[in-house]
């Protein structure tokens, strides 16, 4: 949504607090499991850019999405990934940065055949 500032110089007066340099070496990364709206929105994490992409699957995703009934049926070899809206085939051994994940990136993953609790997308 476009915004028109009524006060001249408004942009210089705004303190943008979620700048990358305010996260002490980390970057904000949003993670979203598509068709699983039990998680109503993407979850934000402060992650180091050098973190291996595979750590998302091994550590982060089980902690936050593991309680969903579909989680145990996820076939990680078939997961479809998107980074900032573009289809991606991330290299699990490379870092988030090397896979194109930047500050405020959105990583979405789709699990074919799993469409939420009893197919409800939730």
Strand order of the largest sheet: 2-1-5-3-4
Which quaternary structure do these chains form? Answer: single chain
Residue share in helix: 10-25%
**Which shape, going by the Cα principal axes?**
globular
Query: What's the total helix number?
Result: 2
Largest sheet: 5 strands, mixed
What does this structure look like?
The protein is 13% helix and 20% strand. By secondary structure, the chain is of the alpha+beta class. It has a five-stranded mixed beta sheet with strand order 2-1-5-3-4, with no helix packed on it. A hairpin with a 2-residue loop joins strand 3 (80-83) and strand 4 (86-88). The two termini are 28 Å apart.
Short description:
The protein is α+β, with helices and mostly antiparallel strands.
Key descriptive features of the protein:
single chain; 122 residues; alpha+beta; five-stranded mixed β-sheet; 5 strands; 13% helix; 20% strand
Helices, strands, pairings?
Elements: H1 10-13, E1 27-33, E2 43-47, H2 54-65, E3 80-83, E4 86-88, E5 105-110
């Amino acid at each position: 949504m476009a915004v028109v500032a009524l006060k001249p110089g408004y942009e210089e007066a705004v303190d943008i607090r979620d700048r990358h340099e305010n996260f002490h070496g980390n970057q904000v990364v949003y993670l979203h499991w598509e068709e699983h709206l039990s998680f109503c929105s993407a979850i934000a994490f402060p992650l180091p850019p050098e973190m291996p992409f595979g750590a998302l699957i091994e550590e982060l995703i089980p902690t936050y999405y593991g309680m969903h009934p579909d989680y145990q049926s996820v076939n990680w070899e078939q997961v479809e990934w998107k980074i900032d809206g573009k289809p991606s085939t991330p290299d699990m051994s490379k870092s988030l940065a090397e896979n194109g994940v930047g500050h405020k990136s959105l990583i979405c993953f789709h699990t074919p055949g799993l469409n939420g609790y009893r197919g409800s997308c939730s």
